[in-house]
Design a protein that fits this description.
The chain is of the alpha/beta class and 333 residues long. The protein folds into 2 domains: 172 residues, 3-Layer(aba) Sandwich (Peroxisomal Thiolase, Chain A, domain 1), CATH 3.40.47; 147 residues, Thiolase/Chalcone synthase (Peroxisomal Thiolase, Chain A, domain 1). It is 30% helix and 24% strand. It has 10 helices and 13 strands. The strands form 4 sheets. Strands 1-7-6-4-5 form a 5-stranded mixed β-sheet, sandwiched between helices. β4, α4 and β5 form a beta-alpha-beta unit. α3 packs across α4 and α7 runs parallel beside α8. The two termini are 33 Å apart. Bound molecules: oxa(dethia)-CoA (UT7). Oxa(dethia)-CoA binds next to α2 and α7. The site of oxa(dethia)-CoA has 19 residues, from α2 and α7.
Length: 333
């Protein structure tokens, strides 16, 4: 009997309506469109406006669309894994809130925290439930409401990030399609370069932590940039070499959308030309857990059964990862 693989049998995304342009950001901090575009490739990003609206609102919209597209009854879902660093609440897990909203009465749910590599860590984890045969339908979500943890007076961080959510359905495949291989890596010494200092158990919220702005993203941009360029490119190359893939074998590179310059460096090492790189950073910015499923969603109509995709990410932790996927279906009308 052929080995069971976990195939992505549907993909969907959701971004909020509000568009925050570079020009609007320039009215809030000392920056300009030319600097942001040339240093990052970002022209605009989406923001979830309104009080009392958590990341689950976007994830639920992405998942409802996914169920609709794939004709899936929510009661058939066995499990939901939500990669996010901006959960609605410290607990319970956002995945449980999503399950309740969509009516996934028989699904287990948990959140996974691996920052910008979160969707890849979740995809690899979800695939194991399918590959072992223990579960039939798993939904993997990457979603973040980055606007909830940004200081809009800090020009070094607020220009990069945006809000958004993407979701994939995983099901068993017997033709060798789906998740073929995954390499996941972490290095906790990255904490010093990219973190949110307070709000966890080490420094619970207090008057001081709020006054010192310690609930916002802190990033040493140029240090993170150097790690990201090297690690994301190398892990993508590593999975290609491990699976005897050359640049010409790759239909699409699906990189985490943190900075166009990091993406270009990764593509160069992989010898993948520009027209094979999924890129939507210009319109969404860095949505952390959301970037890779949002790319797959945007490019879904161009994907064909059997296409070789290399997914690659780098983020806080540090975490970094690559996944080799054989796409499982042709465009649906
Ligand atoms: O996805 C999670 C992982 N995160 C990443 O992968 C992000 C990696 N880092 C980056 O993408 C880049 O480092 C940034 C986009 C964050 C910054 O770009 P950079 O080319 O590394 O700029 P820099 O931090 O070296 O700053 C260069 C200059 C500085 O001015 P001086 O000291 O040369 O006078 C900054 O103060 O640019 C200045 N600057 C800005 N100027 C206008 C920093 N932010 C801005 C801004 N607008 N928004």
């Amino acid at each position: 009997m052929s080995k069971v693989t976990a195939a992505i049998t549907g993909i969907n995304g959701y971004v909020p309506e509000y568009i925050l342009t570079n020009d609007e950001l320039a009215t809030m901090v000392d920056t300009n469109d030319e600097w942001i575009v040339s240093r990052t490739g970002i022209k605009e990003r989406r923001i979830l406006k309104g009080t009392g609206k958590g990341v689950s609102i976007m994830a639920v919209k992405a998942v409802r669309g996914l169920l609709n597209k794939t004709n899936t009854n929510p009661e058939e879902i066995d499990g939901i894994i939500c990669a996010t660093i901006t959960p609605d609440l410290t607990f319970p897990a956002t995945a449980n809130l999503i399950a309740k909203e969509i009516g996934a009465k028989h699904a287990f749910g948990f959140d996974l925290s691996a920052a910008c590599s979160g969707f890849l860590f979740a995809l690899s984890t979800g695939a194991k439930f399918i590959e072992t045969g223990s579960h039939k339908k798993i939904i993997v979500i990457g979603a973040d409401k980055m606007s909830s943890i940004l200081d809009y007076q800090d020009r070094t961080t607020c220009i990069i990030f945006g809000d958004g959510a993407g979701a994939a359905l995983l099901e068993a495949n017997h033709e060798g399609l789906g998740i073929r291989d995954a390499i996941l890596k972490s290095d906790g010494s990255g904490e010093q370069y990219l973190n949110i200092k307070a709000g966890g158990s080490r420094y619970p919220p207090s008057f001081e932590t709020i006054q010192n702005k310690e609930h916002y993203v802190y990033q040493e941009g140029s240090s993170v940039f150097k790690f990201a360029v090297t690690k994301m490119a190398h892990v993508a190359k590593e999975i290609m070499d491990k699976n005897d893939l050359k640049g010409s074998d790759i239909a699409w590179l699906v990189p985490h959308q943190a900075n166009k310059r990091i993406i270009d460096a990764t593509a160069k090492l992989m010898q993948v030309p520009d027209n094979k790189i999924m890129m939507n950073i210009s319109k969404y910015g860095n949505t952390t857990g959301g970037t890779i499923p949002l790319c797959l969603w945007d490019y879904e109509s161009q994907l064909n059964k059997g296409d070789n995709l290399i997914l690659a990410a780098f983020g806080g932790g540090f975490t970094w990862a690559s996944i080799y996927v054989k796409w499982a279906y042709n465009p649906k009308n």
